[in-house]
Fold:
Amino acid sequence: MSQSYNRGLIEDFSRWREFQAGMWAWIFHKFTGWVLIGYLFTHIAVLSTAIPAANGATMMFQGSETDVFTGTIVSLEGLLLVRILEVGLLAVAVFHMLNGTRLLLVDLGVGLEAQDKSFYASLILTGAITVASVPTFIAGAF
Amino acid sequence: MAERYSSFNSGGRMWLIQRVTAAFLLVVLAFHFFLLHFVHHADEVTLAASSARMEQLSYYSLMVLFLVTATFHGVNGVYNALVNQGLTGTKRTVVKWSLVAASVVLLFQGIRTANAWAGGFPLL
Structure:
């Protein structure tokens, strides 16, 4: 006799205490994905200042006239908050890439039995790459 | 009634494209981060340097393809996440076409920006 088992809605986040590694990987992948697509829209909006800049639009920046693209990017990069957010973006992107690699491999039949270990490895590697990148991302902000 | 027989249903095809774009994005996103944060630093960005890169057809093509694949991968991911959360019926249709419209705007604006850097489509 087959038995039915009501597992409940796995997308019910109120059950987070019951989640195991695979579920956390799924949640983090969704969260980092939302951040990245949100950032893509913001990124293109900021980079669009190249359109008026290419047509000669300028702004005053640090006492001299600069094209609006260069002035916008360099003044944003001068803010410590932006540098910190960039480190966060790197962490989000690195996790999404490492966990995405893990998902591609599992889809190809590689490493399914070690999927929890590969999730933990993704987390540790993300932390290591992010910490190692902090000096590069913060350089010149002070 | 005839039924549709295929190795891929429409959901399966989108699933496959999501994986193919993922594999491409893994390489190009790593390259993008490395080039624009580690080789060149973000606070050293200038219109002239960005234009010099974009005037090369190979770089321009790679960046436009990067934009197209990232837009598809991101928007398709958002759509699937919402469907996974139980989005159905009219709401699902509205969300789907809103995401398609947002993608078109993003691609249009991204390519306009690339062309502004490159001074038009770089033939050489």
About this structure: The CA atoms of residues 59 and 65 of chain A lie 6 Å apart. Chain A has one domain: 20-138. The longest helix of chain A spans residues 80-107. Chain A has five helices and two strands.
